[in-house]
Structure formats: C-alpha cells, structure tokens
Design a protein that fits this description.
Layout (H helix, E strand, L loop, with lengths): L15 E5 L2 E4 L4 E4 L2 H4 L8 H11 L12 H13 L4 E5 L2 H18 L7 E5 L8 H7 L2 H4 L9 E4 L4 H7 L4 E6 L2 E2 L5 E2 L2 H14 L2 E5 L23 E4 L10 E5 L20 H14 L4 H22 L4 E7 L2 E6 L3 H10 L2 E2 L1 E3 L3 E4 L7 H17 L3
Parallel strand pairs: 3-15, 5-6, 5-7, 7-10, 10-11
Antiparallel strand pairs: 1-2, 2-3, 4-12, 8-9, 11-12, 13-14, 14-17, 16-17
Length: 390
C-alpha cells in the first residue's frame, strides 16, 4: 500500500523539531551537528535571529499580492543584487529549478530577439545537475534522472566536463548558450578549473553565444565569494541562484545582463508566487548578513581551515578516504567504502552530511560555522574513519 507521502525519497529515520545555529535537534532530543544545511540551503544556520525577525515582521503585514502589482521587497532586493553582481536585472522564482528554467528561456529569447531564432540549443556538461523538471533532467542526461520519463526533452547537447576541445566541436549554428555549474555539487563536488571558466567566457564571446552559469549551490557565499565565478574574474550573461539565497525560505532568482534580457518584456514570463513579500523580506535579511564587511572573508578562512583538517584526515586514513575535493564550504570526501554507509555512521556519531555522485560525501556547513564546530566535525569524522574502512 502506497504511503500518504509519495515514496520518492530514501529518508533517514530521524525527524527534527528545532534548530539553532549549526545544530539540529531531533524529536528524541538528540543534537546533531548540521554539515548538510538542508543541501546548502540554511546558509546562516538555523533560527538566525535577523532572519526570524524579518519573516515574523513581514508575516504580520502581508503574505501575497501576486505580480499584478509592484512588490517593494522585490525592487529593493533586485537593486541590491544588481549592485553586488554582474547583473542588470533579476527575475524571482520559487525554487532553483524554476530559476534555471527562466534562464534557459532568457537564452532562447535573446537569440530570437536579436534575429537568430534558429539558435535555441544549450550545451551542458557531464555530471551536471540542474533540477528535476523534464527540461532540467534532459540537460543533465543522467540515466538515474531520465529513466522512465522519456521521451527526453530536446534542446541540450552534452560534452565532457572540463574538455574545451569537445565543447568547441559541439558548437553549431543552433547553439544559443553554454551552461555549467562552477562547482558541481550533486555531480561529485567537482570544481571547474578557473582557466576553464575563463576559456568558456572567451569561447562564448568568440561564437556570439551566452555564458549561462548555474550557481544554485555554489553561490551566495558558499565558496568565500558572493558567487563562485568571481574567483575566475569573469562574468556570465545569465545566471540562476537559489538555495542559500533565502537561508531556508524557498525562492530563487534568475540574474541577467541588460543585453541578455532585452527580449524579456511584459508577458514573456511570469510566476504567481515568485518574489512574494515573505520571500523578499527573508532574502533582504540574508543579504544584510552576507554583505556585512568581513563576512565572506571569514567564510574563506573557515573553509581553508576545514580543507586543511580534511586533507590531514585523509592522509592519516587512506583506508577510509580516497580524496578531498571542492571549493570553499562546498567540500567533498570521496570514501573508499560506500558513501551511504559513511554518512550513516556519521549520523550515528552525531553529524549530518549529504551524498553526491562518484561515491562522495558532501560537507556543507552553514557559512556561520566556526572553529569549534569544525573541531567537533573532525572528531566525528575521525571516529568514523577509525572505526573501520570508509
């Protein structure tokens, strides 16, 4: 008999009733160190007082009006994002995959608007993950995502991650854009080389196509800069963001240059809930914290500390850990044994982590993580490694 909640998740047998900072508290009273962060979502930890106050204040005033009217919170957050990024304009959505879908539409509309309607295809890379819509799984092309959901949506051409020669060869007179995650999260915590990102920018300029970055997981301070592509000193034409953007409140955003979004006029796209007053109140509160002087620099320091500790752990336990990889506080430990077993044992030790492809354990602490929490995480990891093969 099918359960009332559709059984599409392989859930761990634990439920949480509250959280505080980097910790979650289960219904049985046990405390867990949260290095999952809701899959890189609760970027400022749980129950951050500034976010709680912003949401409570807005909830007592107004929840929803639709986008038939001006939404002051949207205007404020969009202006702040424009001032802090490459973008000239922002569209707000309810989720990451909606932001990604909006960005695909921006790319196609740009080509149509500029007199190239036959340029509609997007080049993606192996190991990508952009969400669970039919279009997003078609872009990723992973068998685990597309199996049983055919026929696969047309419009996406995939090349190997990091292979510039293959990418160049895949560009045709139907190509509109190249889409890539600067750091693949679900795909195994694989950061793109900075020179590779720079080359993508050059190739897009050379062929007159758009550079479309998916920073749903790598953005919002996760790598120590507001967005990961900043480390390469480049700017995309279109970008999607989500996860950390709301600190746990669900919403996303599609950011674009004025040129790329020139065709996105009234009626070309829309959302009933996107950019609602509740989401915008929290989004502005998150940005208050993330843009505080010194905040991102502290994230970078903590990330380097955690990286060093993980590398030392891997060196001492080669029987358990094969490799450490990632960028900033989007880190991965490739385990020798099954990553699911390693994660289960970590949970037994009081620490939460996230699986990824290529037998990787993702470590995604909140950006507010400190030395004490990192030390506690290392004790949990050490215990799991010492107890047996990873």
């Amino acid at each position: 008999m099918i359960p009332a909640v559709m059984p599409t998740y392989a859930r761990a047998d634990v439920a949480f009733e509250r959280g505080e900072g980097a910790y979650l508290y289960a219904t049985d009273g046990r405390r867990y160190l949260d290095f999952a962060s809701g899959i890189a979502v609760t970027c400022l930890g749980h129950a951050h007082p500034h976010l709680v106050a912003a949401l409570q204040d807005q909830a007592a005033k107004l929840w929803h009006t639709s986008n038939l009217y001006r939404v002051p919170g949207q205007e404020r957050l969009a202006r702040r994002l424009v001032d802090a990024t490459f973008a000239d304009t922002v569209f707000f959505t309810n989720s990451g995959v909606e932001a990604w879908e909006c960005a695909v539409k921006v790319c196609r509309k740009y080509m149509s608007h500029t007199g190239h309607p036959k340029r509609w295809r997007v080049i993606t890379v192996g190991g990508a993950f952009h969400g669970r819509t039919l279009s997003a799984i078609a872009a990723a092309k992973s068998e685990k995502l597309v199996k049983g959901f055919g026929p696969v949506v047309e419009g996406y051409d995939q090349v190997a991650f990091g292979n510039l020669n293959e990418l160049r060869a895949a560009i045709t007179d139907e190509t509109a854009a190249i889409c890539i995650e600067p750091v693949q999260g679900e795909g195994g915590v694989r950061p793109a080389e900075l020179d590779y990102l720079r080359a993508l920018r050059q190739i897009c300029d050379e062929f007159g196509i758009l550079l479309f970055l998916d920073e749903i997981q790598s953005g919002y301070g996760r790598t120590g800069k507001l967005f990961a592509h900043e480390w390469a000193g480049i700017a995309p034409d279109v970008m999607c963001a989500a996860k950390g953007i709301g600190g746990g409140f669900p919403f996303g955003a599609c950011l674009a240059t004025e040129a790329a979004a020139a065709g996105m006029t009234a009626g070309t796209h829309g959302s009933t809930y996107g950019g609602n007053p509740l989401a915008m109140a929290v989004g502005n509160a998150v940005l208050d914290v993330v843009l505080e002087p010194g905040f991102l620099e502290r994230v970078d320091r903590m990330a380097r500390l955690l990286w060093d500790r993980l590398c030392d752990l891997a060196e001492r336990h080669p029987e358990a850990i094969e490799q450490v990889r990632g960028a900033g506080l989007l880190l991965g430990v490739k385990t020798v044994g099954p990553n699911g077993d390693f994660i289960a044992r970590l949970r037994d030790a009081g620490m939460l982590a996230v699986p990824a492809a290529d037998n990787v354990v993702r470590l995604l602490p909140p950006l507010i993580v400190g030395e004490a929490e990192i030390a506690e995480a290392m004790k949990c990891l050490e215990a799991v490694c010492a107890a047996g093969e990873g």
